[in-house]
User: Fold these one by one.
Assistant:
Number 1:
Amino acid sequence: MTTYLEFIQQNEERDGVRFSWNLWPSSRLEATRMVVPLACLLTPLKERPDLPPVQYEPVVCSRPTCKAVLNPLCQVDYQAKLWACNFCFQRNQFPPAYAGISEVNQPAELMAQFSTIEYVVQRGPQLPLIFLYVVDTCLEDDDLQALQESLQMSLSLLPPETLVGLITFGRMVQVHELSCEGISKSYVFRGTKDLTAKQIQDMLGLSKPAMPTQQTRPVQPQEQAFVSSRFLQPIHKIDMTFTDLLGELQRDPWPVTQGKRPLRSTGVALSIAVGLLEVTFPNTGARIMLFTGGPPTQGPGMVVGDELKVPIRSWHDIEKDNARFMKKAMKHYEMLANRTAANGHCIDIYACALDQTGLLEMKCCTNLTGGHMVMGDSFNTSLFKQTFQRIFSKDFNGDFRMAFGATLEVKTSRELKVAGAIGPCVSLNAKGSCVSENEIGVGGTSQWKICSLDPTSTLGIYFEVINQPSAPIPQGSRGAIQFVTQYQHSSTQKRIRVTTIARNWADVQSQLQLIEAAFDQEAAAVLMARLGVFRAESEEGPDVLRWLDRQLIRLCQKFGQYNKEDPTSFRLSDAFSLYPQFMFHLRRSPFLQVFNNSPDESSYYRHHFARQDLTQSLIMIQPILYSYSFHGPPEPVLLDSSSILADRILLMDTFFQIVIYLGETIAQWQKAGYQDMPEYENFKHLLQAPLDDAQEILQARFPMPRYVHTEHGGSQARFLLSKVNPSQTHNNLYPWGQETGAPILTDDVSLQVFMDHLKKLAVSSAC
Amino acid sequence: MSQQGYVATPPYSQSQPGIGLSPPHYGHYGDASHAASLPGMMKPVGNLGAAAPGVMVPPGPPLPGPHQLGPNAAHASGPSPQRFPGPPPVVSAAPTYAQYQPSTQSTYASPVSTSSVTHLGSQLSQLQVNSYGSGMAPPGQGPPCPPLAASFQGPPRPPQPPQPSILQPGSQVLPPPPTTLNGPSASPLSPPVHRQDGLPGPPPLSAQYQPPPPPGPVMGAGYPPQQQAANYGPQMAGAQLSYPGGFPGDAEQMAGPLPPQKKSDLDCIPSPIEVIENDRAIREGQVYATNTRGQVPPLVTTDCVIQDQGNASPRYIRCTTYCFPCTSDMAKQAQIPLAAVIKPFATIPSNETPLYLVNHGESGPVRCNRCKAYMCPFMQFIEGGRRYQCGFCNCVNDVPPFYFQHLDHIGRRLDHYEKPELSLGSYEFVATLDYCRKNKPPNPPAFIFMIDVSYSNIKNGLVKLICEELKTVLEKLPKEEQEETSAIRVGFITYNKVLHFFNVKSNLAQPQMMVVTDVAEVFVPLLDGFLVNYQESQSVIHNLLDQIPEMFADSNENETVFVPIIQAGMEALKAAECPGKLYIFHSSLPTAEAPGKLKNRDDKKLVNTDKEKILFQPQTNIYDSLAKDCVAHGCSVTVFLFPSQYVDVASLGLVPQLTGGTLYKYNHFQMHLDSQQFLSDLRNDIEKKIGFDAIMRVRTSTGFRATDFFGGVCMNNTTDVEMAAIDCDKAVTVEFKHDDRLSEDSGALIQCAVLYTTVGGQRRLRIHNLGLSCSSQLADLYKSCETDALINFFAKSAFKAVLHQPLKVIREILVNQTAHMLACYRKYCVTSTIARQLILPDSMKVLPLYMNCLLKNCVLLSRPEISIDERAYQRQLVMTMGVADSQLFFYPQLLPVHTLDVKSAALPAAVRCSESRLSEEGIFLLTNGLNTFLWLGVGSPPEAIQGIFNVPSFAHVNTDMTLLPEVGNPYSQQLRMIMNVIQEKWPYSMKLTIVKQREQPEMVFRQFLVEDKGLYGGSSYMDFLRCVHKEISQLLN
């Protein structure tokens, strides 16, 4: 543990946790003066191939209000077989099974390297996974065909006992019954009528407890608990039927006249899907996968009318309060999302269309339930196909990289309280002693429900130090936080992962240097960005930017070294040096800037930003730029217009896009066909290198990025030009007079200007 | 014959004046009105002629005789029975004549004169004159046998009953021979019969009637010219006879006759059998040309060949009267409804010419600019053919250039006979796009089959039966004549409390089922593949029909919906933009939570109260609005109901009724007994001729207009009759009222135009034109009446009123109007010395009887014993009936089959619907268009039983069968053949019930003996007649 960098990295690898501060200010007042809140990015299910789950249940503190899990930080009296809870200090007897415990014979959860440990709970019914496909049939034939293939492919990836169901929609909504033979049967609903859950259940004949059609099959006792629904059947039983059913899917037959959008009843279809699962399989892992090729155009949740001459709402419309259907639609989907979350199910949205599809309105369905949101141009693209396939990817154990119905509980030691969380979760409204009154993100609770998780799902969790200066914390003592994540593993096991971490307290007055050194500027940037994006969902864009700027200035004032009123004297320590730059790019990012993005795109970007882990989030904030040339091996270069050179190939990764950009000269060479000449094989290799690297990124990322291959002057070069720092623009190019980089035609401020201004403000005593 | 006599005589007297005999009559009558009436007599002449030789005489005599007899009969009937208990009918009649001659004579004075047979007439008149001051009855009989005459003379004194009775037959018989004209051939036969029969009783009826028939044919030969020249149908003349049978005005006489009546001598009151047989005798098998305006067509019961010569065939339009009064005052005076019963798609027998189709190309049919009437024979071309004057509104129109044609010397277009619209009463136009919805050519119609798959239907095998049958029936979907396959598309829905739609698209390996559970707001879940061409999707459809019974085999759903399925069907047709027909197979009260949900309201307590009408109305308004919606979208609904208990037919039947569909009802359906009836109904209904999405407009010439429409119609304004569909069995009754004065010259013209879509998806216009004459003489009006059409009108208007008025009021109105009509006749058209005599116009001879049958119908009879469903069913049934249907429905046909002549293909002669006509040794077949009964007397001959049932004796006959066993003997074959012949004429398949005399089921059978006192109330014919007479007497006073 030599440097904080290593410490941070180790902690992240072991516990999936990164804190903004790794030394904690010991009093409330000081903590608030630190500007960046005490917070962490938690990846609850971070993949730990080296951590086999233990096959027993955790030992918990017997105090009903605490129930913290036994962990390495606990004091243990091996003689008396007692342990003291490090959160509430309750002394607990070990259970009988721990009779043989001793210093040399410790259970895993007491070993320091098991600060994160996973338990397998053997109790309770093990329910199969459930996948309910909700498929839009108002698609072009190619699209529908491609989608059918993808869906059929997905069947082959699912374990045979998985329950599947199918709902298709267009003008009407069809719920397909899967248990009948000889004739395919479906229940049809009008797409315009909002139905209550009760109505849906009555209409589907689900309200009666015992269905006459229920099959009696030899099953384990725990499986009798659920009503075998006619609409959800295990794959192994209906494999052929289901494949045929998918194969026979027809385009919505209702005629669409010229100048009209097809009538698409997404709102009702989702509502029915939610209602169906709600009554048949509450509180078990289930995915509703919505595949849609356009905006909902009728019924509850409609986003736009069917007149093509009326375009779908833009940010401009929204600002002008001109989006007729938006509020109502959002209310509808929010209601659905909350119900889904309450049932422990999740909703994925796969929206593939050239125009908007109403993701803005539907975003809470995914955001509140932890579902995926995928946006593409067409189902007939590799982007969709591979992304969809990746959902079913398996981990080192051969299990799906997905978990269901998780609850995350946060326990803190007394000096701390939890203020809230930002991520794909909903509050469970669990009040308790460790819940802060100040809410940051989704607060007011110490427990959250995360209906769907994957190994990269990451939450930002914000804390508040409540210790008063009057009650100083003893030197060298540590604050502790325990994260308890209970979830349904994709193997249908119930598991509990417990992560307990501790950090030292430090007195700001005396130990500011130490605290500064323990600052994790990357985590801080992401955590602040999450806050900003969270605010942007409900506030006007400019307000959020102003807030972010003020925070940055305050941080610089607090931790910068400068002379008053002397911008040139301003210096930041290494631990803070990158932070302003992150903020600069964040300000320009699509998460906060809606210009040039549709509301759907903004929602899409924000969705992913609020769930990815730190590394990915940083890429989103500040894209990575690699340069390939004959001058040496590929190197990361500044995300700056000055990096755009004629004899370079650039590879930019913005998380959502992978852009390969051939410099002017390179592009000319390529056109001239040098790469095909044996004597210029090295050029061929040069061209190939970024492609290979891009492929590597493409393989690993979910969702699959948009892959752009362009060159100097190409129309798609805009993807690159819009991201780089406009250090050279048409305004300042000529004075510089040298041929480095490419000028960007923009009035945006460059990083240089931004920094200058920042320095000026930071040193100013005015603010 | 005696009856005829009764009836016939008066008319003759009136109408015949034109004929030689008239003078004397005039003398008698003295009144100008009588003179006027004489022309009418012409018809009677015809009859007489028909009766011809043999008959001729009888008529002659009858005329006088009848008149006398008529009155006598009534009176005499009383006395006669006493004296002639055994043979009451015949005998009684005779005696009555004798007795009442005096009174009748006066009335008959005119008749005599009228007697068409001039020769006879003259003779008679002379005789009469000579012999009697009045010369009335005596003359008729007189000529033949003086003794009779004497006896008649005697009759004036009531006391001599026996003689008269004898005399009558004698008189009738005798006259023939004497009549020089026709007499010889016919007379010989008839006389003996008369005599013989006369005494026996039942036979007498036939005997009496028989005489006329033979003459009929003869007449045809000999008299036609005369008849035509003089007046129209001979029958009419006969019919026109006032009802001489009138009850004597004198209290004494009344007293006298009444008691005898009680003893029920039917023979002395007008017999429908006789009327029918008379008409048949004259017209059966003949060609009836429609070339004359105001011509009264043969009765519906008479088979003849109709030749369209400028007026629509009576198969299409029948009027209550063929002569309209010139003024509304006259119409009010007579109170005879002016109405036409229009059956625009009536089936035409194969030996008549089908309608010509006229195609004027893009310009469409030629129409009057002002009133929009279509080109027809009533248009008068003028100015060398350049213009034409509309016969309806008199507007002068230019002839469109493409339509121009020169006129010949009599002002007729040269192409008169080449163009159906110029020379025919009925024809069709091809409609242009202007006549189509949204100006787009219509799509061919679709049939949607909707099967109730609730528990009971599955359990009793009905669903399986339907599915099996559909496979066969679908092969026979109606198609255009020239097409090879039907253009009709089919769709399938099953339902209980939810709806299951089926996708049977031809490219599917197996059908797809789509369940719609949102019955509160039903919709069609699929577009493509729901309505398909049967041929293309045959395998998928068969697959489906095979699966349906099994699919729901485990269903235990008992609740059903009704309105939502109709809505679904309508929506489906709407979505497919085509008209069509829904076939709904339903069995229970729709109690599931859905629009149109019904509760059981079979409340016997309401019967016979002012609230009874509620029972005939639908429970909620939704049925009415749904029916309107259906009509608006060309969706016809036919329902097959299989109720095992109360199902609220009043509600369920409304939509079928108003959308031109049919409601079939099979109470307590049992697979082994009723499936045959159901299946043949289904087959017939699917195969029958039908037009869709129809709008009918009835245009009239100036002076009157159509004011009211009865039937399966929907009207959004006062003139356009909208019908989702109209088939060959549906009739619309239209009532007319005066606007202004009608002129005798131009007459009253009616043009009925029906715009519709054919089964092949063509838009067409069907035009029926009918010209009626007009007269300022009431007698003409009475002369031209058609009792069957009148009853049709009365039944429909009464059954319509049932919804709004207490039944008691309706019954009173009917009786009053009957009395009024007859009183008016009595007052203005008949000179009678005896004021209180009941005299019926010949054309309305059986009106009181039929009216009584109508009054006794269970709809108008407030009796809790009869299920309200059955009453509602019959009410709705009658609303769409044509004249022939209503005639049989109200007066069933009773055939003695034990006398079946195995060698003859002819039906046995019907007998009157009265218990007195049954005999223990007899077997009778009774049909009313809905039911068939085979009644077995306890003494039925074992050979007959053996022949029919193949069992040794009466006791062995198992009545639990609805089909006669196929026994290989001629008797059985003959009987079954007869039943088939009868069945073929009626739209509903009739369920056969075997009834043994003196067994419980006989009660049902007896309800149909409509001349007797009703089982559940309703007076006997005789009682009613007396009642009517009393009313008339009061009116006259």
Number 2:
Amino acid sequence: MELNGCHCEDEGGTEADDGETRQQTPGKGRAGDPRIDGGIEGGAAGPMEQGEPSERRARHTADSPRKSRPPFPWFGMDIGGTLVKLVYFEPKDITAEEEQEEVENLKSIRKYLTSNVAYGSTGIRDVHLELKDLTLCGRTGNLHFIRFPTQDLPAFLQMGRDKHFSSLHTALCATGGGAYKFEADFRMMADLQLLKLDELDCLIRGVLYIDSVNSSGPSECYYFENPTDPVHCIVKPYRLENPYPLLLVNIGSGVSILAVHSKDNFKRVTGTSLGGGTFLGLCCLLTGCSTFEEALEMASRGESTRVDKLVRDIYGGDYERFGLPGWIVASSFGNMMCKEKRESVSKEDLARATLVTITNNIGSITRMCALNENIERVVFVGNFLRVNTLSMKLLAYSMEYWSAGRLKALFLQHEV
Amino acid sequence: MKLKDAKKTSFPWFGMDIGGTLVKLVYFEPVDVTAEEEQEEVECLKSIRKYLTSNVAYGSTGIRDTHLELKGLTVHGRRGNLHFIRFPTHDLPTFIQMGRDKNFSTLHTVLCATGGGAYKFEEEFRTIGNLQLHKLDELDCLVKGLLYIDSPSFNGQAECYYFENALDPERCRKMPYNLQDPYPLLVVNIGSGVSILAVYSKDNYKRVAGTSLGGGTFLGLCGLLTGCESFDEALELASKGDSTHADKLVRDIYGGDYERFDLPGWAVASSFGNMIYKEKREAVTKEDLARATLVTITNNIGWIAKMSAVNEKINRVVFVGNFLRVNTLSMKLLAYALDYWSQSQTKALFLEHEGYFGAVGALLGLLNFT
């Protein structure tokens, strides 16, 4: 993969060999490292990873290396099965001269994005995730994180067209399945050429990047201590300095599991189709809810054991022979075979059971992968975990419990 | 509990597996009863034999799977027929009551039972039916039952089979498989929930994995989503549905294949993923939902089975359990998925007696007492 055309003379057209730490906040730069001055993070044609592994960030880039840095605006786009994730770099070090020369629509784009936190009826800027004072490719500015449903992509394209985005002559780096699916739409409706990047390449680089951009504030990477103890459960920072090998579990509409052995050496081990889309789809069918937030809200108030059949429902207690305690779920939704029980459960119970079922299944599959790949650290990312502490804690607990403490579940701030 | 007679186990010979959803019962009907024996036979023993063998349905929910009957079997020195009966665990109290009415306990036999219910209902058997259960582990029984049943051969046919060209409706064929040299074998037992065992020899096996997304999940979700009331009804609905109306496929996200990682466009990216859209929820039918539930649960089990096979380095996987009863759709899906995702390295096998191995194992447990 070639470098995008930013300031990395020593790399030329090859990958930087230490993808992690180039972006430093001012004052934290490493002396003597020629790549520090806004060098690109992680090379590869474009993707500048972002803390939001589900937000692959691709820098604006020309195709060939050794050009000066790409013109603004700098966007990275990940068009997923359910959500579009957009990162936007807002430069703060604009000189008077630059401002003078700035094209009107570039200015208007910047204003529109940074002075709103909501766009249209479904676009949202996650202000709490904003990374301030980042130095990227020699410029200083803020990194913004925006999302909207993939379903509304046509509206977004229309807006791009209205704001004459294409006249800015920038390449738009995009990843995710939608970069392929909607490529023609981008061209026809907004006159934009997409530079397509693989979603998992971007994901890896994003994860590796984000931990290094440790701006002031909480550590990017963290884990839960005592996950199922409501009183004693605490979030603890985790330094992902020597990350390899790492198992990366990306929970979007569906799930991909990657084994990462080094910055450039990873493979997609497996995946499962029972992901965030399944949770939301089933919840909508079973409870009549229509949004992710609503589904989570219901789940937080429900009791899944009314819906599930536990080991104790079958054994009358523990299944001792194989170490299965009575409270473990033997059959998810297993109590729902019985009509009277179906009539007695609430929507909240069903939402909870759906959450628990999907989450535990992901945990189970992850453990098997970790075992197979001989990896003990697992990082869970993806928008299924957004504002979904319940699932995070379940994952944390189940990893620890079933592996007798061998496996550790880690999470990242910017996935949420 | 010791047997009183070291040489002969007294009739009736039963093996019982009380699962989360179904009770599986095997009953050995001796056909070599001598005149003398018949003379001595206690009345209630005779009546039990008559009741079981002259009916194919019991009460409103009990069923004898006559097509599975093993005729002319020699078991523990006696010749007879092995019958396979099932009824919902929900109706166990009725069964116990019946045992009481027929004075079963006066026959002084041990009742060998396995499955979770052997523990859960032990008390009820004692207090209501005046019967002492001899409890055996369900997985021990499963393994022993499975290894045993393949040997007498199924009335001349193979007990074990696989599917050739699983997803090609024109060319798909059921082919016999010789399980004579079975080890190592991965056994995937799909009941209410799923247990996965790696079997290395007759006495050496371990439970390597499991999942709570099993037959009970399929039936439970189907009941909620379609209002259906039985397993057979759920399968009926599923056979007429199209799961791609509910699922989000790779091509729905990529517009085609996800080539980089060899994911074809027709692969499911997100099960039920299209159900996040209101219009699609309104357009989908009960049949589609039933089908999607079946496909989702089946494929998930297939994945877990495949990964277990890889982890354990075993390339033969036999699927058993009543989730597969009259469920050719799931069997073919499993066969295909395993073949496809393992690049034909792993073979999916099936057995005619599906969900009865635990009960057979319990019967053997009774007989091997001596």
